[in-house]
Write a structure and sequence with these properties.
Length: 167
Amino acid sequence: TVIRGPAAVLYPNATLGGIVLTTSRFPLSQPRYSAMARIDQHGSYRGEVDFTSPLGNVGPLRFSYRLVAAQQGGDTYHKNIHDDRTVVHPTLQMAFKNTVVRLGYDYHDIKRNGGASGIITPNGKLYTDAGRSESYQPRNNLAKYESSGLRLFIIQKISDNWDAKIN
């Protein structure tokens, strides 16, 4: 992810030119299993899992996997405010000598309130029926974002300090 411009607004230690964010959720050579669940006093909940482990060898080929997934939903402090999410990111990795091939799948299903809170009604007036406790959002003002896609990475180690990567 590349954030251009004064990224210091989001990241206080960033330079004025921008920042590059990298995520390294690739399969590991050691088994690691993590699960987390939380719920707050309003009924909002979130569960996350992060599992990784070697699968085994087929001759000189070494296989491993990683599964990162999360589910969140429930009620929030304000009425009519939703942020329901289901995300799943499995990755399968094959390593052979100095070459690594990773095949991954990304699935996002997000349902949340769309846009800002200044909503224009069909008669052209600003929506003000809901009060502050409802964050000025009408009921069922939800936008659904669903996406899925495949990832393929081929990484060839050239030396200790150099890799060639195709994605």
